[in-house]
Amino acid sequence: MGELLKSRCSIINCLGFILLFGFILLGAIGGCNNDGKATGVGAGGGTSDPVVMANVATLLTINSCVDCNLTRANLREADLTGADLRGADLFQADLVLSILNSANLSEADLTDANLSGADLISADLTDAILNRSSLIQADLTDAILIGVDLSNAILRGADLSRANITGGANLREALLSDAILIETNLALAIMNSVKLVEADLTNAILIGVDLSDAILIEADLTDAQLFDAKLIGADLTEAILIGAKLVGVDLTDAELFGANLTDATWCDVDCICAENSIGTCIGCAPQNSCNGQ
User: Is residue 6 part of a domain?
Assistant: First the structure.
């Protein structure tokens, strides 16, 4: 009888330790706000999948989770600076306000993920999938997005200054209104039907980009390089194209009403729009007949 009681006590003590550890872990990961509501990583929402939760714990411990399952994981406000998330499955993950500066997310699947307000400065997103993801006001300054899939993604107000979005990156139908793309390299990117209303593309490299049916109303393309770009059916109403390089650009059916083309180059250095060229060039042959002479 005494041995049985001792055995029961041992079990109870073990269970108590497990529960205590669980509460400590939840407190460390989740925390509470001033209203007593759970906040932060792992607190509320997300998934109850034990595999995913274990992977989240691993990630937060060693800052690495290569090729792991983080589907619907709650990583809101997590500090993942320099994290190794290569090939990770982050489908529908919550990464709102997370810190992913210099993180490696190459080939990661972030389809439908929420990265609004996240810091992704100098992050590597080579060949990552961000289809339908939300990156509202995210900071992607100097990020590497070679070959990335951002089709139908929401990047309203995001900062992509100096980002490398080359390698046939897909931004088809993405929302980039009010986004900052200063000195961003978008060479050969697919940007059909993208929305760039009031976006800042100053000094952006748009060589060979397909911007067919894109909406660039009041966008700033000052000194942008648009060599051989396709702007078929694009809306450039009141866009700023001062000093832009438009050599070889296809503007078939494009709308240029009120666009500022001062000093824009249509064919070569001998075919430059005169000062105050609004909508059409003054003193320069039409772009569809300019032969570089």
Answer: yes
Rounded distance between C-alpha atoms, residue 155 and residue 114, angstroms: 11
Q: Is 171 contained in some domain? A: no
Please give the Cα distance from 195 to 289 (Å, whole number): 29
Q: Which two tokens stand for residue 140?
A: 């992607």
How many separate domains does the chain show? Answer: 1
45 φψ region: left (φ > 0), alpha (ψ -120 to 50), beta (else): left
| Residue type for position 144 | I
Phi and psi at residue 275, to the nearest 5°: -60, 145
| Domain assignment of residue 17, yes or no | yes
- Cα gap 174→155, rounded to integer Å: 7
11: in domain: yes
* pLDDT tens across the length of the chain (293 residues): 454 444 444 443 443 333 333 433 443 344 434 443 334 565 445 788 999 999 999 999 999 999 999 999 999 999 999 999 999 999 999 999 999 999 999 999 999 999 999 999 999 999 999 999 999 999 999 999 999 999 999 999 999 999 999 999 999 999 999 999 999 999 999 999 999 999 999 999 999 999 999 999 999 999 999 999 999 999 999 999 999 999 889 999 999 999 999 999 876 556 788 888 898 887 666 554 454 33
pTM, 2 dp: 0.82
